[in-house]
Amino acid sequence: MENQKEDTKAIVTALEEHYFKGIYEGDIALLETAFHPKTLLFGDIKGTPYAKTLEQYLDGVKNRQSPKDSGKPFKGEILSVHIVNSIAVAEAKVRMYDFLYHDILSFHKIDGKWLIVSKMLTDTNP
């Protein structure tokens, strides 16, 4: 049970201190620490299919105005974390720009570190 608490805390930290903060500040180096280098991202934005490699995603983040610099509201919220041995799924909402994203993030514990290995997202704005 103690490991479960430690693992949950590690995933929450990865989400809050690396994923959300990296997105908010547009900090590619920080954001990259949350992901496995081979991560793939899939989903849809306003009904349009979305499929990118991690490299393509980070390039997009690098070349856009960060939410912090935009002055628009930003909020990252963890909805749930479910861990089974060395794998986990986290569900999160991210409000940024004029979007409300619902993310489903798959994690794998590799060499003692929890990393996002897959990201699915959808824009849930009406």
**What would the average pLDDT be, to the nearest integer?**
95
Number of domains: 1
Please tell me how large the radius of gyration is. 14 Å
Major sheet: order of its strands?
Answer: 2-1-6-5-4-3
User: How much helix, percentage-wise, in residues?
Assistant: 25-40%
Under the CATH scheme, the architecture is Roll
Distance between the termini: 40 Å
Poorly predicted residue ranges: none
Report the total helices. 4
Description of the molecule:
By secondary structure, the chain is of the alpha+beta class. It has a single domain, classed as Nuclear Transport Factor 2, Chain: A (Roll). Helices cover 33% and strands 48% of the residues. Strands 2-1-6-5-4-3 form a 6-stranded mixed β-sheet. The mean pLDDT is 95.
Task: Give a nutshell description of this structure.
InterPro entries: FrzH/put_lumazine-bd, NTF2-like_dom_sf. 33% of the residues lie in helices and 48% in strands.
Topology summary:
Layout: H1 2-25, H2 28-32, E1 35-45, E2 48-53, H3 54-62, H4 67-70, E3 75-84, E4 87-96, E5 99-110, E6 113-123
Parallel strand pairs: 1-6
Antiparallel strand pairs: 1-2, 3-4, 4-5, 5-6
Brief descriptors of the model:
126 residues; alpha+beta; Nuclear Transport Factor 2, Chain: A; six-stranded mixed beta sheet; 4 helices; 6 strands; 48% strand; globular
